């Protein structure tokens, strides 16, 4: 029988890196919309503006710092975890160089809605290959396991904290930040069964 760790590996790696690249593109689309960014990106944007570093560089540095927090939580990163830290940062900077700022409200709304939907696709794509969670997701699941709190409570506490810190540092908190928080779960829930790579001995979870 094929080892689960290597089953369908070429397909999984391609989907992983396409998903991560699209995730970075979706981040850039939300930034260019000017209507708000993802909760963690409020922090990334605030740190970027206060430090002078690019958004992608800050995203990488924050991801690396979050990975260090995995150590006391006894979380184990996978190739997808490390790739998440490196690829998304590079992809968002590359995308921001290509996407121009927009001023027309209609274009801003289209960029924002497209960014949220694309982020849902990207998230389902990289989660569905089973090569390790993103650093921020791993932080959440590690804290849930160590504290005994609910996923909802722990995730809410983390995201409220990073949004507040990012806003104080000058990050963009807008209507799209709220829209993303409300919409991303249902979008990923619908798409994940369609993008999940089935491994030997595993049953896909129904939508």
Descriptive key words:
single chain, 207 residues, mainly alpha, 73% helix, globular
In total, how many beta strands? Answer: 0
Helix content: over 70%
First and last CA, distance:
28 Å
Output the radius of gyration.
Answer: 17 Å
- What value does the average pLDDT take? 91
Poorly predicted regions are none
**What count of structural domains?**
1
Percent in strands: under 5%
SSE-based structural type = mainly alpha
Shape: globular
What kind of sheet is the major sheet?
A: none
Number of helices: 8
Topology as H/E string?
Answer: HHHHHHHH
Structural overview:
The protein is mainly α and 207 residues long. It has one domain. Helices cover 73% and strands 0% of the residues. The chain has 8 helices and no strands. Helix 5 (105-127) packs parallel to helix 8. The longest helix has 25 residues, at 9-33.
